[in-house]
Amino acid sequence: MDSAPTAEARLADLARQWGDAGDRRAVFAECYLVMTRSVEENIRAGSFNDGVWVGRLLDRFADYYFDAVDSYGGALGVRVCPAVWREALDACSDPLCHPLQALMLGINAHINHDLALALVDVLDDWPTLDEEARQRRRDDHELVNTIIDDTTDEVQKDVVGRWSPAAE
Predict the structure, then answer these.
(1) What is the pTM of this model?
(2) pLDDT more than 90, % of the chain
(3) How far apart (Å, rounded) are the C-alpha atoms in residues 45 and 84?
């Protein structure tokens, strides 16, 4: 039985640790937690054509973030933190980093670096899919984007607002 913590549990732990320390890296972790919970709720509700595939995407996408966090500062020895994440995590470690900057740096690194890699990993069956199945995957990916977009106000109010009330 796999005893590894879920992505949600790991995100909550990072957000709590960094938040308690006043570390701006918590801003992206908190945002990512809100968005992950929302996508997971939609998986459970049966909102997707292929919830299993969306779950795989969600998990693989999170793996890239956790790999970057774990390797940041050489914590894993030979593994190297991707440069985009190293720059983002360095900047967000600075207490003068504005919470919106911290959020945008994390989003940029995760979307522009990790998403493409995660999609390649979970679209390993793409060549075997017919056009209808491919369209269902596209639709599921678009629904993930819609769900994330729908969390923007919550993130602004509950996450950014806590770190920077004037930005709420």
Answers:
(1) 0.89
(2) 74
(3) 35
